[in-house]
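Researcher: Going back to the complex we discussed earlier. I've cleaned up the inputs and rechecked each line, so this should be the final set. Can you rerun the prediction on the complete assembly and write out the structure?
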Amino acid sequence: MASEVEETLKRIEGQRGVVGTVVCNADGIPIRSSLDGVATAQYARLLRKLTVMAKSAVRDIDPQNDLTFLRLRSQKCEIMVGLENEFLVIVIQNLHQ
Amino acid sequence: VKEQVTEDMLNEVVNIYLTETETITHLDMPGISVSVDADDAEAIKERNNRYAELCKNRMGNDKYMDRSMQAFIGASKSKQVQCDSIVMVDTACEATTWDMYDSFYGAEQDKTELTAEPEKSGYSESIVNSSRGPEKTTSLLSTTSIGNTTLEDDAADPRLILQSEKFQKVLLVMERCILANIFQPKLAAYRQLPIVEGKQWLSPHRSIKHNVVTPETMEHREEDVERSLSPTLESLWVFSCELTKGRTISCMAWNKKNPDLLAVGYGEFDFRDQTPGLVCCWSLKNPTWPERVYHCNTGVTSLDFSAKHPYRLAVGMTDGTIAIYYVYSQDKTCAVSSSKCSKKHYSSTWQVKWAEQDMGLSGDDKEEALMSISADGRISKWFLHDDLDCVELMRLKRMQEEKDEMETEVKDKKKKGEILRSLNAGFCFDFHPVDSSIYLAGSIDGTIYKCSSSNSQQFLETYSQHFGPVTRIKWCPFNPNVFLSCSLDWTIKLWIQDQLTPLLCLTSTQKQVHDIMWSPKWATVFGAINEGQMKIWNLDYSTLDPVIVHMAAPGVKMTSLLFALQTDCVLVGDNSGQVTVYQIKNFTVGEGTGTVPVV
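Model: Rerun complete. Updated structure for the full complex:
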């Protein structure tokens, strides 16, 4: 199991355009990251805030629903956040060559 | 006797209460003005006037004299008092819908889990939380109200997170999202969605450079479109990964229930090459890595997904074993294998297929069984109970031998030992689309046998017009009387069911034809693979030449062909381990009913 997870993560990190990946726990503390320390902390902190707000919004409308995935597309890149109760997976992908 | 004043008594906090009595009051502020309506107002007014006159007359009047006095002024002393600083705390509260929902339903669920200890820890944690700032207030309130055990989960081991199944699932979705970004235009073309014009996003091909579309290039594009109106194949993407590099693709099959799932079998055609085979299940949503990988002992020759149980994948291999894999689980081993069966094939299983067969006498009972044809000349029907077990449907006897047999039977009935030696190796078969008890089998000497599953001794019909091994037979899905066969003798023949000579014989290049398939969409169209070329024929248009000819890359031989069921795409597998998805462009077919005119 662990090796498959490692393989999948490596494949994701090696995909075309992917800048980096950050895995953090429920408190926003990075567990594993392919970016440098400053960028990791920044992404983890900012996206944690955003996901808390997004989750609150989704659940406000329907408390039985829950947020599973968040995609933020900007001019230069796309930030994808996969959510679960215990952790957060953040992937940043550049969109242009 | 005076009470002894102890240290403790001095430190004791003594409360002193001040109350009013009848003679002592806390506050006495006599009023200095009287209402105009009061009773003694007149008297007070007169007094005020008299006093004012008195003050006026005071100046220079002998009745009054100034005199000074001296009073004692006490020495003043300043005294300081100190007290604890008064702490001000801001509290805020947010009552969201989900917060209330969680409180009500979460409390109900956790009632069984609550013990004394978690409550205490919850409380102490909440004190710590309050110092972290306003961000935490919502979680603070929810923990104090529920006092449940979620806080303890927060401190989960990072390694546990990384190994959990949920993590694996999230990564799967993430990978597919990323790939959707990369392959967006190609997948959109496959699914026949409009492609967004404009800035080119990421391209999966590293060699192609995409520029921002300017008005000049737009004009260019339009000209190109006008020029290339002839039918062509456009390559969309390639299914390939490190595992599959260099392997020959022997067969491909779509899943009957999930149209995005493709199973590809890798195995060498050459008997001398004994590399272990591989089966990969690819999903359209991830062209860079297969969803399932199964390693097999020997090369894989054929695959089929079951229609009734869409998770069952039957695999035929070069050592004659048939294995069934259950695709839904992550288990890498096969669920059932025929290696222990005593009646298994002892030579390569060239084709496997799931087909519905009548089980009961009434003819209404239809059960799905697995059929296989192999190089040992037998067609078997397999049953899946606990293990695979088979029943022989037919033996492919050579035509010559049959005639001899009939003569010798009259003389001597004991010559059964010769039957095994002289069986005709079977290469391929296909079941009739309407009446699934009739099937066609192709053999290594070019004979095609038409058989019925109810008669295992005699053939219904034999067609022997091919000079080389018949590699593929396919019934036409639109016309139940027509079938196509292709063989290593460079020809493709179109037959009508009851005629012993083919209606049409198609040859375009002098190369062995490995695979053919009818198009699921157009009645008169089929595709064929020679060694280095992929051809699409349209019988309505021309019976001499194929409509589209696509050359393979130099050094690469194409080996397998599959039409996509709902879109205009065709998949081609080659001997370098790549499955390329092509989109058929500019292909128009006239309104044909599919009935080929009888010559």
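Model: Worth noting: Residues 159-205 of chain B form one domain.
Researcher: Good, that matches what I expected from the previous run.
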